[in-house]
């Protein structure tokens, strides 16, 4: 646990003692588009989440008192989750055209979120983008240099393939991560096929939390859960993507599934839920062409 130079208490990955100071910035969240805080350190991207800021709390740090008793968790995030909504916008795809190929500097140029330019400094960013983009190489030109300039355009098929691989990785590791196991309480009572579908469905939900509504729908369309649907239809279990709508009093004691509690929202999520979105600009407006 460390105190940052901005007087925040953070828990995050261990970094070398001689590493450069982290770059903290506000970027649009890939799902909501709302400003969220991220960190770049040693070429890696991290998400900073506020755990709790409610109540009167302070931190004692050596011989000082830090009045802000909040706690921040810094966790790695795959940069492609940040890049997909941006790439989707800047390619300017139409019914007649698949869109534009753009260089890194052009992709991450935004007057509203100038910090996006920092993403260009991430390690192996071009290799990451190649997983979801068509890539073109051309002579960089200028002074007879022999370097190649890469340009990128988001490809829907590549993107869905990558997202499905993310879902599968989560599903494969599901049983080894307690917080994931706890997200679907009644899997042990289901037969094997239902368990597999339940785990995949939960992994799908987790990945979709970092996608726009459009991409979440496209990804969801790639999956079917016939055995779970039969089970839910037969005993009216609450669906895994819609917790708690059915009252337990509507069922006989013998048919009641284990209670599934709605996950508690963090302080930041509660504030966001109460916030008025009137007048807020969509993510696409931050990448609009500049007027002449």
From TrEMBL:
One of its GO terms (cellular component) is nucleoplasm. GO terms for biological process: RNA catabolic process. Its main location: nucleus. It is found in: Nucleus. Residues 247-277 are annotated as: Disordered. Keywords: Nucleus. Coiled coil: none annotated. Residues 247-262 have a biased composition (Basic and acidic residues). Residues 19-78 form the Rnh202 triple barrel domain. Residues 81-219 form the Ribonuclease H2 subunit B wHTH domain. CDD domains: RNase_H2-B (cd09270). Non catalytic subunit of RNase H2, an endonuclease that specifically degrades the RNA of RNA:DNA hybrids. Participates in DNA replication, possibly by mediating the removal of lagging-strand Okazaki fragment RNA primers during DNA replication. Mediates the excision of single ribonucleotides from DNA:RNA duplexes. This is Ribonuclease H2 subunit B. It comes from Modicella reniformis. The gene is RNASEH2B.
């Amino acid at each position: 646990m460390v105190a940052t130079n901005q007087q925040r208490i953070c828990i995050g990955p261990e970094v070398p003692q001689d590493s450069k100071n982290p770059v903290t910035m506000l970027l649009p969240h890939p799902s909501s588009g709302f400003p969220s805080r991220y960190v770049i350190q040693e070429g890696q991207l991290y998400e900073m989440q506020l755990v709790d800021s409610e109540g009167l709390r302070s931190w004692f740090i050596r011989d000082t008192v830090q009045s802000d008793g909040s706690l921040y968790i810094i966790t790695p995030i795959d940069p492609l989750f940040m890049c997909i909504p941006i790439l989707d916008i800047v390619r300017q795809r139409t019914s007649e055209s698949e869109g534009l190929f753009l260089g890194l500097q052009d992709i991450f140029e935004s007057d509203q979120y100038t910090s996006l330019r920092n993403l260009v400094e991430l390690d192996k960013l071009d290799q990451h983008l190649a997983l979801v983009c068509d890539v073109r190489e051309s002579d960089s030109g200028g002074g007879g240099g022999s370097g190649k300039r890469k340009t990128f355009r988001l490809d829907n098929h590549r993107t869905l393939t990558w997202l499905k691989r993310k879902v599968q990785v989560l599903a494969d590791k599901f049983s080894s991560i307690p917080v994931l196991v706890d997200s679907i309480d009644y899997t042990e009572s289901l037969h094997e096929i239902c368990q597999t579908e339940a785990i995949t469905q939960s992994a799908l939900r987790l990945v979709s939390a970092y996608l726009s509504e459009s991409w979440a729908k496209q990804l969801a369309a790639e999956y079917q859960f016939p055995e779970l649907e039969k089970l839910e239809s037969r005993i009216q279990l609450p669906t895994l993507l819609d917790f708690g709508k059915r009252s337990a009093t509507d069922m006989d004691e013998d048919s009641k599934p284990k209670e599934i509690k709605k996950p508690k929202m963090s302080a930041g999520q509660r504030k966001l839920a109460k916030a008025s979105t009137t007048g807020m600009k969509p993510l696409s407006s931050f990448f609009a062409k500049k007027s002449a």
